[in-house]
């Protein structure tokens, strides 16, 4: 049932407008170009500068955790970016988010290093094939804390990208 004042429609229209603006933003265009460079060039990650690697790793972490939690981050190929993402969060000054990432790593891997090889990571993760493992509850709490965005990661990421001349804010 439509609301009498048309507020819902205005809210939806505003949301669509923001989405259209983001799709045309320098930030979005840069991200798409960066992903293309990683996946569609022979150099891949090796072809990125250190600031680009940092921005990419932190952005992947954010996207994976928001999409499916820390478990998804570590179980996908993005898990190989753990060290880069952690260093990036610290460089961003996102200490709370870095702490959450470390805690998630400890839940899944204990004191072990996070393997770069995905199949090795999956073998070590207690959540793989075990939907009742206590790690799920711990990860859920960490996911929720991350979702609260204690470090305002989007703002820090944008400021980092601009300060390293990865793209210009329009």
Brief summary of the model shown:
With about 170 residues, the protein is mainly α. It has helices spanning about 5-25, 25-40, 50-75, 80-90, 95-110, 120-125, 135-145, 155-165. It has one domain (about 45-165).
Q: What can you tell me about this protein's structure?
A:
The structure is a single chain. With 170 residues, this protein is an all-alpha fold. It has one domain (43-163). Helices cover 68% and strands 0% of the residues. The chain is globular and about 45 Å long. The mean pLDDT is 91.
Describe the structure using short key phrases:
single chain, 170 residues, mainly alpha
- What structural category characterises the helix and strand content? mainly alpha
Terminal Cα span? 39 Å
Strand content: under 5%
| Distinct helical segment count | 8
Counted beta strands: 0
Largest beta sheet, briefly? none
The overall average pLDDT, rounded, is 91
Rounded to an integer, what's the Rg over CA atoms? 18 Å
The backbone outline, from C-alpha atoms, is: globular
Q: How many separate structural domains?
A: 1
Low-pLDDT segments, ≥5 res = none
- Tell me the helix content: 55-70%
**H/E series:** HHHHHHHH
Explain the layout of strands and helices.
Blueprint: H1 7-23, H2 26-40, H3 50-75, H4 82-92, H5 95-109, H6 118-124, H7 135-147, H8 153-163
């Amino acid at each position: 049932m439509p609301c009498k004042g048309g507020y819902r429609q205005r809210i939806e229209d505003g949301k669509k407008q923001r989405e259209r603006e983001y799709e045309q933003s320098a930030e979005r265009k840069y991200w798409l170009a960066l992903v293309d460079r990683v996946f569609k060039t022979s150099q891949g990650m090796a072809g990125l500068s250190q600031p680009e690697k940092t921005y990419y790793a932190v952005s992947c972490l954010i996207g994976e955790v928001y999409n499916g939690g820390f478990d998804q981050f570590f179980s996908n190929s993005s898990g190989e970016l753990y060290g880069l993402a952690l260093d990036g969060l610290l460089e961003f000054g996102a200490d709370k988010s870095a702490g959450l990432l470390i805690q998630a790593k400890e839940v899944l891997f204990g004191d072990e290093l996070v393997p770069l090889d995905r199949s090795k990571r999956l073998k070590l993760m207690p959540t793989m094939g075990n939907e009742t493992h206590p790690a799920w509850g711990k990860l859920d709490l960490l996911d929720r804390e991350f979702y609260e965005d204690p470090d305002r990661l989007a703002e820090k990421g944008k400021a980092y990208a601009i300060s390293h001349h990865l793209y210009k804010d329009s």
